[in-house]
């Protein structure tokens, strides 16, 4: 019996060798010329690759089948990428446009719930195009909080999320203002007509494709966000509006207006960020990231602030202070041992997007700073 190319690669070990070689090559991204070269930031970079690898294996190997999709949380406390929002719960799954799906569950009380169909090309082109989007404000939800949402290319009555002929994934964003008291939405997805079907056993072709997809994800994601971090260097320690079209092209939420930049602070320096005007919005937040655009460890450090957690001035404005040590003022953002990184401010559901003012000063001079 003759073997297919994929079967031969499995039998002789070529598939695994190619996977390991490509993974080794991905390490060169961490040594990019403009990336920090010190042991601390390099160590975080290699840890970042292991996190992308875990996420890629789950997505491309264990949850790969669009005929039997499962919503999974692929970005969380220990898998991070692309300035992941500490206020968010992210979920995603694979889909295929020739199928129709039903998302159902309980709305919960989380402040913001957005669901998108996308064309995810992080592993091949560095883009993530939104092909359909709805948020909870547009859904018909029963009094008990339950709802159903149809997902298809063909237009449907009632709650409907459009797909295009290229859609290959669903993403769900749940954004909390108060994680302690808000309840997240509990959602599941099913393919219409799948109730009596079962997945086929693993094949050599599927394994080879999954290994290749995982490597594409690791290399594509790491390269994309390292290059993006480099692009922030001209505005280091300033916080200008990002290129909104570009943000949307790599998976940004259509309801969010983004500010991105790089930051660097000496041991005796702080960054003061003033938001003189807070627009009417569903929420807003600011967060600090490392060079690799991972949010800093929000499990143990106060590295972000939002509309609910912030303390405001009497005129409604907000001041955020980024400092290595506690400066004894409201809205302190910890650097968590970092001297360089990236940062992000979001206006969510706002019609106006006021600018932000930043300044670098000595920690010792902070008490003299007037409001």
Provide the spatial order of strands within the biggest beta sheet: 1-7-3-4
Structural class: alpha+beta
| CATH architecture call of the largest domain | Sandwich
SSE order: HHHEEEEEEEEHHEEEEEEEE
Strand content: 25-35%
Helical coverage, percent range: 10-25%
Quick tags:
Jelly Rolls; Immunoglobulin-like; 371 residues; 4-stranded mixed β-sheet; 4-stranded antiparallel β-sheet; 2 domains; alpha+beta; 16 strands
Can I get a quick summary?
This protein has 371 residues and is of the alpha+beta class.
Explain this structure to me?
- Strand 3 and strand 4 form a beta hairpin.
- It is globular and about 80 Å long.
- It has two domains: 159 residues, Sandwich (Immunoglobulin-like), CATH 2.60.40; 137 residues, Jelly Rolls (Sandwich).
- Helix 1 crosses helix 4, helix 2 packs parallel to helix 4 and helix 3 packs antiparallel against helix 4.
- The chain contains five helices and 16 strands.
- The protein is of the alpha+beta class and 371 residues long.
- The strands form four sheets. Strands 1-7-3-4 form a four-stranded antiparallel β-sheet, with no helix packed on it.
- Helices cover 22% and strands 28% of the residues.
- The model has no long low-confidence stretch (mean pLDDT 95).
- The longest helix is centred in the middle third of the chain and has 28 residues.
- It starts with a helix and ends in a 9-residue tail after the last strand.
